[in-house]
User: Fold these one by one.
Assistant:
Number 1:
Amino acid sequence: MSISAVGFEKTFQYAQMFKEGMLCTVYLSLFTVILGFMLALVLAVMRMSNFRPLRFLAMTPDGHMREEGFLAVVSRFNPISFIAAVYVEVIRATPMLVQLFIVYQVVFSKDVINLPSVTVLGFLKLNRFLPGVVALALNSGAYLSEIIRAGIQSVDGGQTEASRSLGLNQGQTMRFIVLPQAIKNILPAIGNEFVTIIKESAITYTIGVADLMAAVKAAQAGTFLVLEPLLVVAALYFCLTFPTSKIIAYFERRMRRGDRR
């Protein structure tokens, strides 16, 4: 298998499809980042909640709390944290391809959510694009939630106590004190997840999303070439991921300037 200039010329005849596929990948990544980050915040808060409706079971007749025993264990059960933990573990323990097909063939089936076959953003089929975004966001949210939770827990507890002593409520403390510091600590991990989303979006071509990999398959079928279309799409993915990683690194340096003073 050899590479030739003629092969690239034939591949570039599908330049419009590659352009649309690149735009589709950008749209997929953008919507996934937004929805996934929102879901991750909710899951992180759920995992860190202190909602224990059965706490009264550990109360002794003299008003003390049991530290050991079956009732003490049951009293510490947190249903909100449990639901979030189960979701995260299930998503992390199952393949992304399986999750994609469950969302596309079950959740967005004709019997559950029947999406119209309309075109959005100029050239994207809604009934294929939206399931791809939802599946990617559900997967990304599980991983991001653990990153965000670790970042929140890395902030010194004295920061929260100081903010509460100044009159800030729990929501204000989280918004103005904890989250800014947590995001600074986890920015490299978040940036790595964003780059991963761009690359993982390639899997959506299996349900008919017109992304970069769909353009590759069309070019390979039309030119009977294998390597040249793959090299072109690899270069396009590099053009998307490399600047993204550099932008994240730039903001990381800006946010850490105060640490060196």
Number 2:
Amino acid sequence: MEENIKLVKEFTHTPQIMRQGIRVYQKKFVYPRAIIKSVVYLLMIVGVVALILSGKLSESFKILGYLAFVGLISLIFRELFNPLKQRDNIVQTIAANEFNPIYRLTVKEKTIEILTVEDEADSEDLSEDDTDIESDESCDTEDTVIPIDGSLKLIEENEFFLISAYSNMIYYIIPKADFSAEELEIMRKINK
């Protein structure tokens, strides 16, 4: 039995919306974990420094203590600055592409489907020998089905919706730019 379709919308991303969306995702889901890990590493650093300064370690163990100190400092640095680096890499990749992929959002009663539709550059590159493509669906490259349940998180910002699912392991940024007032209301009521 086919689910009742509430909304079908195609969209693309701009670098600005992606930067803002990733920042919101990281602030909400990535940085809290990174801060907890950094505090644990900091406590370990305090323990290592206390051992080194206590004078109870032999010279060979002091060298290991110094190495542990440097290693823990680098882990803190990685936890706090990798998300920033990842965000910049994603945004630069989007900004460098001449043709952004087109995504299709389908909101149903119990699921949300987001798929990447082949972008214009790929469709122009198809040669005349590729006549076995019969429908638009055969051009789809990626399909994600997200159940609408308690694990789905929908965050609304001024310019986009952020959908997070599967224990916040995946997220999608849906720009509001081309949404009508009715479509915005459908999005707001997804998880209610």
Number 3:
Amino acid sequence: MNYLAHAYLSFGQPDILVGNMISDFVKGKKQFDYPVMIRQGIQLHRQIDHFTDQHPATREAKIFFRPAVGLYAGAFVDVVYDHFLALDTAELDAAGWQLFSAATYDQLEARAALLPDRFARMLPYMRQQDWLYNYRFRQGISNSFAGLARRASYLNGTEPAFAAFEKHYDALGQLYHAFFPDVKKMARTEFDARLII
């Protein structure tokens, strides 16, 4: 799952949100530098990622991207899942997603002092370009794919990946709908049972 799903699966708890959003920027024992609730969010993020990687729908979705991006297929599927989540009216309608995105930026900015430097530098661009809401648009996905390619060590462009996204769009949507209720249930169970709220 990418930024939108990790934000959404923080279930409205601001410190869990911070941990869930910064987890990829916090390596090893650095997590112990953070307050307990943020550490719980970091751990929740990692549980979500593990569950996502192991889910049969994700394994099937990766097949569509592997010829184009090889070992990066999982990262591209994560972005695609955010696209279909942003369109999922069973969760929120378009206006609801817009409000949710704005509230997420507000909560992160209110805790700016706790954010790792790299994430803190990225956050203004995330808000200015409204990454979370714009996952619903194909241009937003194209932009996210381009960001993945910039960070990848051997990808020269994203045209083949975007072509795979377009070609398999309906199948990927079906896989999202097979997957998301499962990850939401798992995350909610972990949030309720294991996190200190």
Number 4:
Amino acid sequence: MNGSDQIAALNEKHWTRAVQEGAGCTAPWLDLDPAVVRAYAGGTLENPAGPLYQIYPAHVLAKAQNKDVLCLASGGGQQSAVFGLLGARVTVLDLTQAQLNGDRAAAAHYGYNLTTIRGDMRDLSCLADTAFDLVYQGHAMGWVPDVQPIYRGLARVLRPDGIYRVDFSNPATEFVDWNTWDGTGYRLTVPYAITERVERFESGEAQCIQFRHSMSYIFNGLIEMGLSIEHVHDAPDYFRRNEGAEPGGWDHWLTYVGGFAVVARKR
């Protein structure tokens, strides 16, 4: 695994543990309907049932067939399953072997070919120049201290006119915990200037490290790498309110915080 360091080692353990514990965000999507996936990608289905709505905006899926797609730090058998069903040539690079196993399980289930690479998203030296038409990245940036190495790598592996799509949490609410409900809201307890937080077990041992990225670094970094920002989309998760969600729970917390995806093109 390239780029291994203390941050990578800690986060690898965290995500391996999440897979072992059966966290929903690590489970492969094995009940997708190929016809529904195609309709969503084609723009004829706006509100798909199941988890498919989390792959957004739909228009980045529209021309996936026969394209080379890199799911960057997006292991687990979710995004790769969607692109595989759309007929893309899919490569998944992820830090955690347990996550990549989910991608392999999805590929075996649906019957499409897949390449998996265990590696750090900050070091894409194992990938050839201009190898991909699309780089799709989910919620991964919050696990690295600097977005620039990722931007540099993806700008190199993208083909001219290629698309990069990436998720970010709203930096203002990056460190708002789901367990800080005080009866009326979730509390901001970490000053905005603090960009790093270590989560610990009750024993005091470090569990994982998370990072906040400001709007300046998110957007200016892409521009400096020669990418043109085409769209910014609010994440649909935060608009699907569950009226029965209990305050202090994950579903309820999602109605108070926000996130977004950036779609940029290599000119």
